[in-house]
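User: structure tokens for this one?
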Amino acid sequence: MTAIANTTDHPQAVPAVRAAVATQTVLDLPAKPNTLRNPLRENAADPWMVYDNGTYHLLYTHGDKLVGASATSVTGLSTAPQQTLWTPTAGESCCNLWAPEIHKLNGKWYLYYTADNGTDANHRMFVLESDQPMGPYVFKAKLDTGPFHSIDGSVLKLPDGRLFQVWSSGRSDGQHLYIAPMSDPWTISGPPVLLAKADQPWERNGRLVVEGPVALIRDGRVFLYYSGSACETPDYALGVLELTGPDVLGRSSWTKSPAPEFRRNDAGWVFGTGHNGFFTSPDGKETWIVYHGVTSSSGAVVGSCSTGRSIRIGKVTFDASGRPQLGQPKAAWQTISLPSGDPGAEIVADSTFKLLPKNNTGNALDVVDCSTADAANVRLWLDVGSACQKWRLEYVGDSSYKLLASHSGKALDVAGCSADNNADVIQWPYWGGDCQEWYLDALPDGYYKITSKVGGKALDVAGCSTAHGADVRVWPYWGGACQQWKLVRV
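Assistant:
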């Protein structure tokens, strides 16, 4: 920092000098990390997300109650404490609470959700009301959808202000989409109208299903996205209806895309991509999609309608005609710039740490035989607190960090700067290469996923071994305990 002249004899100069110091201090501060890698939050499904008054609010299915989490940066949603928004009592909405959504209508927040009395066929839709997005909420109404199974309710508010409820209903010939007018946010004021059936081949994997409708409106054009096929299949995907006719309650006024708009990405190890929502960036300039998916270490599909799913996000673009483009589900090794206006993740302060893998916290990241040689192998070994098990973490300033072995001063490095799966991890003199710099993404309970800047693969215990001497490599992140590391300051 440039030296400031002594101003003791010139009091009138003090305010200007203080301003200069403050400005320089701000300029000298490193920029916060402005990237993330999916998944955004693990062990959660059916996401709904809004940004309001400086805070993101994320809701998701929990089953026995309605829950959510809040953070000022989208990166904070992975570790934000779970909040209970509503706990049901005995009765027709006691059980199996699914797919919560919040909408701000007429100055109030309305939470729509699905529940039953313990029997799936009796699923119906309910509404809560609050002055704040995360409550406290009061019960407002049961939506009148008739004597039929009804799930995944959402509000469609047209540009002219008219309200409609859209949802999915299980009938004898499949799961269909329905729409009905609303006189206010808690009252359906007309009979349900069939909107769409699972009549395309891609909507019929596992079962005949179209569900989870959600609106995206831009420049007067109305798009209704929905999920098709059985939720436990890898082919669970998103389709779209566009309002192209004059009558919103007329099935012929909606044009269905014949193919999915957003689907499994086999090369990226992302499957079952469905049940989405949309949210706006903090500065209001960007539209983003939030959805859930499943993955595994081998690329094979795992997961079901209730377990194994994680929440992910991606940026929506618009083509020259104004049609939304959802892109392709991002792999865990792809880095994403944060929504515009997001303040970014908090910087992990420079310090010395032990790195302990979650699958055996009695082991520590270790340089073999405490070698100081270039290319010495990095492995796991019994945590004995030696110098070759201590790593100096330093923020580089471009969202990434370097990790320097305390005993040698050499950097944690991906051998040969390889972007391949299973590339070895060694120590090497620090020269600023991408293979020596790492992203940190916070996970619950003080753990982190540590991702190589080259190739985007996660720091991983080979074979998920818990043994002393297990090798450390890089591998695509799939959420295993052998890919999650606790940073213990020493």
